[in-house]
Structures are given as structure tokens and as C-alpha cells.
Amino acid sequence: MSSCTHRSRYQGQSGGRTSKFVKRKAKIIECDEDDAEDYDPEVYKNAYDDDDKTDMHYRNGSVPKRLRGHGGDGNVSRRGARAPSKRIRHLEAKKIAAINDVTSFSSRLDIEVALAHKYDGEVNVTGWMVSEKLDGMRCVWNGRGALLSRSKNVIHAPAKLLAALPRGIILDGELFRGRGKFQECMSIVRRHQVDEARWNDIKFVVFDAPCDKPFVERIEIAKQSITPSNYVEVLEQVVCTGHQHVKDELKRVEALGGEGLMLRHPTAEYQGGRVRDLLKVKSAHDAEAKVVGHVAGKGKHEGRMGALMCKMLPSGKAFKVGTGFSDEERRKPPKVGSIITYSYFELTKDQVPRFPAFVRQRVPE
Questions:
Q1: Which of 4, 56, 177, 203 has fewest C-beta within 10 Å?
Q2: Residue 188: how many CB atoms within 10 A of its CB?
Q3: Catalytic residue (one of 133, 203, 213, 290)
Q4: Is 133 a catalytic residue?
Q5: For the segment 37-78, what is each residue's pLDDT rounded down to a tens digit?
Q6: What's the rounded Cα separation, in Å, for the pair 249 and 128?
Q7: Torsion angle, alpha carbons of 201, 216, 152, 285, to 10
Q8: Global pTM value
């Protein structure tokens, strides 16, 4: 029976340094080709004691220092047990091979996450993967114990949520409280003091595992690394059958109170910034504008804000936003200089939004 070699080349933190975790994992393990697809994550999880460094020494063909001169010959561990079996070594190798590319991607992910262009109906998205567009806080699990916002700020999440996330694998997703609950979600996750009771309604929903692999393989890596729970899950992805499928799925999601859809090219590798292989689908367009003034309200809005004077970004064209506000938002409107998101149906011949409506104020991450 021929054999294949799995070489784990873990990339440490930026700067070329290698963490203790990386050093423990860096090794070559021999396994049989016939076992190449015989991998059970649950068996692996129970097969390897991450603290048992003695076994790791034996697998590398060396003897721990503490056993040298004391009869240590590489055939028994410090606990008197036999060295791990061939199958256990194979399971470990498979696990390492599966996440090797993901962990080596960490230095690049620190730059920026992938952002979507708008779907215009012209792109042939047959065969792309479609999922619901979540209205939550975008964040990244760095695989080293922290959730980070798009601005690279640490999110103070409950220990039970962090414990449910896999080490050594980077995950891209959103903290999600439910459809139409963006503001409530943000008010909870931005606090430095963790309110465990309020976090109970928030889940980290994963939709990517950034690495140099096609999306369909990355989402499988995410599924294999996560055990669904009350704290974390992987977002469902289905194969798109064409433009009509997009329209039907958008109608279904919006009827449930959802924001829209996301389309991902199945073979595209992960890239940061605004990319063409990631598209968002919504019934109305949305954009951001800078608040430059307030218009006093009249009639039922007398004594509070009636509309916001805004400038489009980046064109600087002036326009007003007078709808979409709650009573509380009219009493305490976004301050001059703040950035808001607004929705609109189309641009006029003067290239300003027609029927703009307030969606939300951008919250610093």
C-alpha cells in the first residue's frame, strides 16, 4: 500500500514569528492513501489531547527531555501508554490539512474583509450560491480567541460564545439578533461590559472561512469546524438556478422580514475589499450620505426634526431625507457630520435619489 505525506505548515502571527500552538502542530505524518477520505471530526476531537506534548515528541521520532536517561525509548508515553496508532495519526493529519490554508491566510485577513457589489440582473448567476442577507454586525473570528469588527476592534462577547468557536480557523460572519433588529443588536454588541442575558438572543452566523480555496470548499471547512449551537451556526447556502430564482427567493425572504440576498461565485477565492464575485440583492437600492443640516418639522412633526439635509457620498450632491424615521429618531436625529444609510428606488436625471428613506445611522465599530 502506498503512502502519502501530509505536511502542516502553520503560519504564525505577522512578522514571521511562530506561536507555541503552531510549533506543536508543525510536523510530517505518514498515512495510507486508502484512508484519504476516512475522516470523522468527532473521532479526531476525542483522539488528540492537545496538552499531551509527549505523544507529539514520539510522533516526530524524538524522546522528551524529561524521559531521556530514564528508559525513554520512543515506544511509550509519559503515561505509560503506547504511541498513537496509525489511524489516530491519520485523523490528526487530515484535520491539520483541512485547516492549514485557512490559518496561513490570517495575515492577509487582517487587512480587510470582502464587500459586495450590487446585483443588477445582468450577471449570469446560474450556479452561484445564494443565501439570505443578514442585518447584523459584520465581524471576524480570528481563530486565536477574539471576535473583531470590520475596524479591527475587539468585540466583548460572552465566554460561552467564544468557547463555541474553533481555534486555528478564521471565520467571517455576522452577529445576528434576528430580522429587523439591527439597532438592538448593535446596542448590545458594542458594549464593553458583557450583558449575558441580552447576548442570549445573539448568534454568530458564519458565511465564510477565508483562505485560498474556492468558496464551496471554504463553506465546507466552516461546516466541519463548527458544531451548531445556540451561539454559532453556518448560514445555509443553496445553488442558484438563474435570475428568476433570485427574484423568487428575494420575495420569500422579504416576506419574512429579511433584508435581501447575497450571491457568491462558487469557485472564487477570498479577497478583501469590494469584489465582483460577491453580490447583494435588495428590492430598493441603498447608499450612504453625510448629514449637513436639519429641517424643522411642521404639522404633526412640529417641535422636532422634519427632514435631514444630506450630501451624497462621494458625489456631494445635496438632497433631503424626510421619511423612514421613528418618533424617537425625530426627537433625537442624527447629528450634523454623522453618516446615514438611506434607501431609494432610482436616481433622477440630476443623479439624486428618488424617494429616499432613512434606514439607519452608521454606528462606529
A1: 4
A2: 20
A3: 133
A4: yes
A5: 333 333 333 333 333 333 333 334 444 444 444 444 444 444
A6: 14
A7: -80
A8: 0.58
